[in-house]
Amino acid sequence: MTPSTVGCRVCGATDLEVFLDLGRTPLADRLVSDPGGGEREPTYPLEVAFCPQCTLVQILETVEPETLFQDDYPYYSSFSPALMEHTRRNVDDVIAERGLGPDSFVVEPASNDGYLLAVYREHGIPVLGIDPAEGPATAAAERGVPTINTFFTRSLADELVAEGRRADVIHANNVLAHVADTNGFVSAIAALLKPDGVAVIEVPYLRDLIAHCEFDTIYHEHLCYFSVTALDHLFSRHGLILYDLRELAIHGGSLRLFVSRGESRRPAVDALLTEERRVGMDRAEFYRDFHRRVDEVRTRLSTMLRGLRAEGRRIAAYGAAAKGSTLINYVGIGPDLVDFVVDRNVHKQGRYMPGQHLPIHAPERLLAEQPDHLLLLAWNFADEIMEQQAEYRARGGRFIVPVPEPRIV
Ligand code: DWN
Ligand code: ZN
Prior knowledge:
The chain is an alpha/beta fold and about 400 residues long. The chain has 14 helices and 18 strands. The protein has a domain at about 290-409: NAD(P)-binding Rossmann-like Domain (Rossmann fold, 3-Layer(aba) Sandwich).
């Protein structure tokens, strides 16, 4: 492990220990439009560190949020039916548990294309979305979800409070890890919640990332990788209580956190805190062999793909996911190994993967070309995608799942 020279994003400690270096990579969601056209494609260092003071795992580089999210952000939540189903169940539960109705107010920072708040609207519950990405924010407004096209900050929260618009519920799914000012974001949640309000927050769980070698979920949009220990510390700094949580399968293993000012702690939180101490997630040693495991996946996947190619097999990939960018760039999967990528998201089709410039097409291309193998870059939706691609499989097509260890299914 190497000591870092920057301070912890949450506690400011300067003795961070770097345990993984993925080298310089391009931005994972910065798709290329014209690879031959001299488009500038900057790369940034991607080093992951552990904070021995507050236990937060984090990357060292902070790319300006405007560069990452504001302009031309291609991720639209609504393209994944399984995510929509997951969201609908979550919203239905929250409405029932909190007894929400037409006098309630639900706010969602990083509301993307309005996929979650639209479910509240169906129930006649007033909502407000906040998202800096123009394309998804416009799509949200078009489906009737009022959305402010900006970043969620403490000053925005203060403005809403001054207008008398405090929230009964704040949803924050897959955004806490993305914000450069982690403390500012949590303090904004604390300010905006009504005294008896609740924040329902989903984050990918660090334990699953490490256990299943999900190193490809590390990229510049994800600044933090959370354990319950680190989260508990973060919320308590801002007068909030992490009072309950649920483990979820989504995105390779996530946590749904329930945070408020006054609720009393449920056993699930202490159970995971104890478990994390038991396995050592609060200590640097826990992370020390991760780099070796990542490099083992890299070597095995590269050997597998090269072997298949040497046998004359044609390989394509499924899912122009951000995580796919880390995978292909770290492993070195270029057009010599993979012919093309398919993705249902129309905003990604016709463009090229960052760094390696694999072309992205609509999924219909699969049956037209019937490649022998399909590298599953969106492995977090494996079941759903394999079900959709039953015909490709029936015709003999095989999937390659890259993590936790490369295998052909
Ligand atoms: O935090 C983040 C997560 C939640 O979403 C991000 N910063 C950005 C994004 O990460 P990702 O791009 O790795 O997410 P997904 O949702 O795993 O990407 C899956 C890709 O696969 C999307 O481009 C949609 C596509 N897809 C598809 O074409 N057909 C997905 C499914 C389920 C499908 O059936
Ligand atoms: Zn720290």
